[in-house]
Amino acid sequence: MKEENNMSLVPTKFRFTTKEKILMIVIIVLMIVGIIVTWMNYVTIKKTNIEYQLAYKQYQETIIKKQEEAERKKQEKLPKLTEQGIENIKHIYSSDNKRAFLTFDDGPSDNTNQILDILNETGIKATFFVLGSNVEKKPEVVKRMYEEGHFIANHGYSHMYEIIYQSPQTVLDEYNKCNQIVRDAIGEQEYNSHLFRYPGGLVGGKYSDIKTQAEELLLQNNIVHVDWNALNGDSEKTNPTVEYEMQRIKETVGNKQSVVILMHDAQTKKVTVEALLSMIEYLKEQGYEFKNFYEIIR
Questions:
Q1: The one catalytic residue among 155, 159, 194, 264
Q2: What is the rounded CA–CA span in Å between residue 232 and residue 271?
Q3: Is residue 105 among the annotated active site residues?
Q4: Tens of pLDDT, residues 275-297
């Protein structure tokens, strides 16, 4: 009776039926659920955004690291002539430890890929004094040399003495022409070997004075030169045998501590390919460690 009396005190417009009360409760519950869901979505989105930002940051860091690693590897393959490198070249035939530099002139040719296969199998990095005129014919072989870590040095463009040795400037011109062709072949316009080998060698011959004058001009342009102090004799005969080349290696290497070995990978030097593995095995037996000029000019 008292409750009824109390209800009677509530204005009619504020009285709710049971259905209305239930509806209001449902609406309130739905609002609360909506707020909770909205909050959870906000938290989830915020968390996702943070995770995305972290993932993107990690992605950027990975890209930067890859770029830095690619640049590091690129710089490792770009020869850099230093003052120490110039001194090293001056004393190339002296060493406390036994070392051997395998060098190949006049390529590339069809023989060069076979030589590269042998070097790859034996884990040896060599130095190739390439001719620009031959690089034009087989740029893919020079690119392979570069990618496999061999040193691509410069032997001029033509190998025609009457052209190369007209003057000191024509020697430099031949170097620059060959260098540009090598750059195009390997796809790296910053490449410069800084290392030249005179066709016929520096010492002696009809053009001795021109060569000597060119030596200073090359050095002024950050280019050093190197000859050899051992050879396999593949240019001494028209048709040398494997036995002859092995004999010449043994004779010219002798008891030297540091040997720069002259060989050729021109088209006619098939016997050099056939003898190469035996030469390598002989040098190993004599205690030589194989080097290339990346380790010298830096």
A1: 264
A2: 10
A3: yes
A4: 999 999 999 999 999 999 999 99
